[in-house]
Specification:
Helix 1 crosses helix 3. The protein has a domain of 80 residues: Aspartate Aminotransferase, domain 1, CATH 3.90.1150.30. The chain is built from four helices and six strands. Strands 1-2-3-4-6-5 form a six-stranded antiparallel sheet. The chain is 38% helix and 31% strand. With 117 residues, it is an alpha+beta fold.
Length: 117
Amino acid sequence: MTTAQVRRCALSLPEATEEPHFKYTSFRVRGKIFATIPPDADHMHIFVGEQVREEALAAEPDFLEELRWGKKVVGLRVLLTAAKPGVVHELLREAWLGKAPKRLVAAFAARDDDFSK
């Protein structure tokens, strides 16, 4: 995947914005970061919960690894050159769901039955 594809995917989510975060590019929903791209743009970070993370790691070990903040695992590190766009899109959606306010999720889920799955 390219950063342009990631950007298009992340910004397709309701109320998603792109903002700088130190030297990184971050994708946010109402100010909360759900993904970042470091300056090297070879990989990205997606902040998903433990269950999503573990399932994804088991299914796609070729381009996913744990993302650590000190000793704590906080999400997934995605190698973009090997990443499958459909998987990345789903992970971004899950990360967005984990950060978006419940009312926002409910409002968009009501318009799109597939969105809340």
